Amino acid sequence: MARGSMKKADFPKLVAAASENAAFVAPVDGPSGAEFAVIGPQDDVLFDFGNTKLPVKRHFFPQSEVLYQYANDEVRSAPLPEGKTILFGVRPCDVRSLLQLDKVFLDEAYVDPYYRERRENTLVISLACKDPAEPCFCTSVGCGPAAREGSDAIVFDLGDDLLFEAVSEKGEEFIRSQAETLSEPEAELVEKAEKAAAEAEAKLPKIEVEGIAEKLPGIFDSPVWQSIADRCLSCGICTFVCPTCHCFGIHDEKADEGGQRIRVQDGCMFLGFTVEASGHNPRILSGQRMRQRIMHKFRYTVENFSEIFCVGCGRCISSCPVNIDVRETIAEVMR
Amino acid sequence: MSDAENKLREVAQDLLSTGRAELVLGYENGSLPMTTRPCFVRSAEDVQRLVWNEFCTNNLAVYLPGLFARPANLRGEWVPPKVAIIVKGCDARSVVGHIKENQVDRERLTVIGVPCEGMADPEKAAAGAGGNALADVCLACTNPTPEVADIMIEVKARPAAGDDRLAKIREFEAKSPAERWAYFTEEVSKCIRCYACRQACPNCYCKVCFIDQGKPRWAGAGSDISDTIFFHIGRIFHQAGRCVECDACVRACPMGIDLRMFTVKLGEDVKDLFDYVPGLSVDEPPPLCAVDRDEENLNTEL
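Structure tokens for the assembled complex are given below, as produced in the milestone run.
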């Protein structure tokens, strides 16, 4: 696969060239920490950051989006999202989450047109991790600090140099198109990148998840769920920061002459998530909600898509106000 | 192990083994460096889990209304549990609020007070601040020693903060309404509507929050900034005369919204208007829930 290298100081030139035909989205230092934003050559791109505060799913599955609008007798579907995007600096765990979300939103039974348009119009360039954060455990769930799968190209931050490596044909094309800034890398740089990736990998803890989907049915009624969730505050942080959580609610917003139907990210940890029209709530206890979240990620998705829907990014661990740690929950389940 | 930690374990052991408490709410070590987390101790053997250090930040009073409410899935007889709770100065003020608002069964609640030396801000501590890692909110604390405690752990509290604790609020008050509004909207525009601020707050125990109500629907659920603003105004105003400045909302917010500015400002307004500071006395009626017939400004022509 094609490779290219450049001096990091020249990165604004690449941004300038690449953003001629596409919106260039990259991690920047935002008001709440690292976040993806549309940038230009004048903006400072973050290279040293653990991960963005919020997951990359929001680029494809926004927190809130209009499905259709209506006025009087007329109903109009929301226009499909348009325009090419280059999404730069996505961590490999977040890239993996996109492959998982594809299984939900691009399932052959029903393809979500809004998600599909954004996916097809986006080139994903990942940024290999050199210093995994404390709660990271990506290698335990099939990913890694330099995992390529799902990216169009991967970038290694090697201090003064950036090394690009194509993964897909689209990525190859991108590297070729940036011939003005990217040149053939010296073998030394490639070696350095491999070494950095191996070092990062060695820092990551191993969590045992083998066979978890088979373990879970047997403990559906176990008191373990309530004991894990005793301290749960039933806020939605873990679901919002999770790159693979994809539940949404549908809301109608009325105005005088019409209105719109929107879908909004929702989360199973909210008490109101399963309230039925009668007022009955089948998941009244925090332990029942915790069980749902873990069952969904580690059992139902394995049954439906042959895959655990956790990429080991650790965001739920670092953001939880009461330190509910999914690594401990997994260990508890495996016991 | 600190002195306070030893004493807390002894007290918890005693309460659980004599049956005066079935549950002790305390802190145990967290899974990340420089963290603790809430810990539900139900047996005397488990008291060894309890810790006391500068990272015991959570306000455990948040669990009380839920523990003293009849479980929604339960039919038949129900007796509220006997609960003991470990509190710092700010947490004790939350408990006072719960007592006044009838959210706890006082007879079945044992309050274990720990005079507070101030809690560390893990971010400051991680940045190598050493002994100067005190959280901003603790630097501004007026009541480090619990005002209500059935059992007091004898340790020394840090001195209460002086008036300079309001420097940022005064700065904010001095701005024009347009500037204040701009700051407010800028801050809340970070919000992702996860409602962690509400869930972490001991005062937010409504069965259904106004923002979640469907009939009527008070605000939209989407990302329209006016809906987000509406949620925050509702939440903040429900804290007027009730917020004890424990900072649970600020610590819980994943997006780093400066929520303290607005609740503290409102608290100062209530203090100026009604000469009332929440959470200090069980007997003092909360001003927004009490009417004094002889009050000078009382408008009776409604």
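The longest strand of chain B covers residues 23-29. The interface with chain A takes residues 30-33, 35-40, 58, 62-63, 71-73, 186, 190, 192-196, 198-200, 208, 212, 220-224, 248, 251-252, 254-257 of chain B (CB under 8 Å). Further analysis is deferred to the final report.
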